[in-house]
Specification:
Elements (H helix, E strand, L loop, with lengths): L3 E7 L12 E7 L7 E11 L3 H5 L21 E7 L11 E4 L6 E5 L4 E3 L13 H11 L7 E4 L7 H10 L4 E6 L2 H10 L4 E4 L5 H8 L4 E6 L3 H10 E9 L3 H4 L15 H7 L2 E4 L9 H9 L6 E5 L4 H10 L5 E5 L1
Parallel strand pairs: 8-9, 8-11, 9-10, 11-12, 12-13, 14-15
Antiparallel strand pairs: 1-2, 3-4, 3-6, 3-15, 4-5, 5-7
Helix pairs in contact: 2-3, 5-6
GO molecular function: oxidoreductase activity, acting on the CH-CH group of donors, NAD or NADP as acceptor
InterPro entries: ADH-like_C, ADH_N_2, ER, GroES-like_sf, MDR_fam, NAD(P)-bd_dom_sf
Pfam families: ADH_N_2, ADH_zinc_N
Length: 332
């Protein structure tokens, strides 16, 4: 085992969107776990867009701290236990999920390591946002048989599994938005979508009205902005909305990534009895049928796997630019 570990640090706060030059891959001595900590060799970590918000100063009331220059980035990771305290129940070679990604080795408090079983064909699939999509579409904006569901950002890490999940929950029609015709074609052929609306191909409200002539019953919003406005205009009476993300403003080069202003017609919320709520978070448990779908292949984990920690800053840049379909994962 090496006596060093590499990690990715923020070296400068950008004026606008973060680019690879705002980060550095540095070599540090191997972390020495304190009492009660597990030494983990990371194998995969998830690259997620909310890092832009944390670099921009963070958001009060959310569980993640802001990132300052010289801070090491973090995020969900799957790693292999190197050593663990006897009381932890973990053993060398076990796979665990934790939140100290963006480094090759991590010393993680034992209570923050969640054991990962071997029932999924690809361990990286434990980084899927399927639990988030499932919670959003069963608890926050429940899908009912025959519903028409609209997912904004339908080709992203959440949207790429949300469309599939809505279909498995009994939706009658599933519509997703994206930024390119190439992704739109793959969303229909691979991800369970019946139709798409494409940003830049015409007014979103007109495209959505054409794709859902009878209106929408459920909206899972990853984007905000004009797509939220269009969903309100197209909603059927009693529609359920869950706000998961705000990528339109979060990844805007002209904003800090910490605010997402949008003007909506609240009269429409009243007249249509629209239920709108923010995503309620994860409780740490996984639905048994969700794992069953992943094991059977009914639910896939679309993702781009970028090899090597040296490429991690590039991976974030490509995520922000929308280059990939699905999640972005760095493999170590």
């Amino acid at each position: 085992m090496s006596s060093f570990s590499r990690e990715v640090r923020l070296i400068a706060v950008p004026d606008g969107l973060p680019r690879p030059e705002h980060f550095a891959v540095v070599q540090e001595p191997m972390p020495v776990p304190d009492e009660g900590q597990v030494l983990v060799r990371n194998r995969f970590f998830h690259v997620f867009p909310a890092l832009r918000t944390l670099i921009g100063g963070g958001l009060k009331g959310t569980p993640f701290p802001p990132l300052r220059p010289e801070d090491t980035l973090f995020g969900a990771a799957i790693g292999e236990v190197v050593s663990a305290p006897p009381s932890s129940g973990l053993h060398p070679g076990d796979l665990v999920k934790h939140w100290l990604g963006w480094r090759e080795y991590a010393a993680v408090p034992a209570e923050q390591c969640a054991p990962v079983d071997g029932t999924l064909p690809d361990p990286a699939a434990h980084l899927s946002q399927a639990p988030l999509a499932y919670a959003a579409l069963t608890r926050d904006a429940p899908v009912r048989p025959g519903d028409t569901v609209f997912v904004s950002g339908g080709a992203g890490s959440v949207g790429s599994v949300a469309g599939q999940t809505a279909r498995l929950l009994g939706a009658g029609r599933v519509i997703g938005s994206t930024g390119s015709s190439g992704k739109a074609e793959r969303m229909v052929s691979e991800l369970g979508y019946d139709a798409t609306v494409i940003r830049g191909a015409g007014p979103i409200d007109e495209q959505l009205a054409k794709a859902a002539p009878d209106g929408i019953d459920v909206f899972l919003d990853n984007v905000g902005g004009e797509q939220l406005q269009a969903a309100i205009a197209t909603a059927r009476p009693g529609a359920r909305f869950v706000i998961v993300g705000t990528l339109a403003k979060q990844l805007s080069p002209d904003l800090s990534g910490t605010t997402s202003p949008v003007e909506i017609d609240t009269f429409q919320l009243i007249a249509k009895h629209i239920e709108m709520r923010g995503f309620g978070g994860l409780d740490g448990t996984r639905a048994e049928r969700l794992d069953g779908w992943l094991r059977s292949g009914d639910l896939t984990f679309p993702h781009a796997r970028i090899p090597g920690i040296d490429q991690a800053p590039r991976a974030l840049d490509e995520l922000i630019s929308g280059r990939h379909l699905g999640a972005v994962v760095v493999g170590l």
